[in-house]
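Collaborator request, handled under Task 6.
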Amino acid sequence: MAAKQQWTSKLGFILAAAGSAIGLGAIWKFPYMAGANGGGVFFLLFILFTVLIGAPILLAEFIIGRKAGADAITSYKKLAPNSYWHLIGYLGTIVSFIILSFYSVVGGWILSYLWRSVTGSLSGNTQEGYAALFDSVISNPWEVLIAQGVFMVMTIMVVQGGVQKGIERASRYMMPSLFILFFVLVIRALTLDGAMEGVRFLLLPDWSQLTGKTVLLAMGQAFFALTVGLSVMVTYASYLPKDDSMPKSAISVSGLNILISLLAGLVIFPAVYALGFQPDQGPGIAFVVLPAVFNEMAFGGLFFTIFLVLLLFATLTSAFSILEIGVAGLSKGASTKRVKFSWMVGILAFVAGIPSALSFGVLGDIKIAGLNFFDFADNITSNFGLPIGALLISIFIGYRLKKEDVWDEVRLGSSISRGVFNAWMLLIRIIVPVAILLILITN
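Structure tokens returned to the collaborator:
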């Protein structure tokens, strides 16, 4: 059983779960989505939807995992035997595998940039020069494959160590380091002349920017930033003891995710505005705009290196959880099998990611539904895999399990009131499914 392994403490679980949620979505995707969609209005909507959609599904996954005490697939089999509900677990495992295949590619890009930053070969360029460099990096087949392989080996080495000695130990060092590095960068960004214009852009809503598109994009960002719908948190919660408060853990993880998104915005937008750049630079903001921004600062090379390190930490902690769902499903909690299955799943994900890694170079002309391999894998998982998984989880908790059984599990180790529980059930049964259906229909 997966529950033979346990987190050593509640803090260890929160840090690992927060590490799973806090990845590229919060640090890379949130700033460029906010920058292109109204800044403060987008951020306000993002917070609202994180509370109303992301956190309730996160708690639902916690409940399923701890109640069953097993990996994602087995958990649904135990809670709904002789049914097809376990297909949610299979869906989450498959989608996680696809995500890891292209997620590791971006992890490789970060490693490539970090190497250049540490060796000093990244400084002294223009924005156009950094754009050309980014195109050169992602189109170089040997560089992207080697960097992707190194990133995957780093992920495997941690996950093979197990829950306590691998994932929890790494998260205990990486997550506090991530926050410390972020605060260093925030202080530097806020001390730039003209930085307050960027702060106002992020924190003061401009209601003229409020559109239906902005609402839906903010809803999607809140949903995807927590990586709910993969049943990753089902697996993580299966290692929880019964005396831990799951509502508090869900609030803590959601709150940390909002905080990291805020810090990412407070690093990027003040610097962008202070140095005369525009906030609506799109996905290339981390690899094209930020190097140019930091290049204009005193000690900019050092601060950009710090940014790349924290981006690497966030990407790795998310990759740990994504790999873990497959390893847990295959090893069934047997520690003697973890090493074998960690390498097996990791190597398969690397191989599956080769087309994505080569999508901007030698395989760039090959399209699926008009998209290259990388964009297709991203689109099929982010726009369909995750929301469908989350929709099924909300239906499973809201209608398949008995309400009293869910209540009995939630209140273990928690002082949650019946009124708060009923409000959460209302969200899970009605508000969350409707919101997810809107995302699916829009996509």
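The cover message to the collaborator said: "The CA atoms of residues 139 and 360 lie 5 Å apart. The two ends are 38 Å apart (CA to CA). Please let us know whether this matches your experimental observations."
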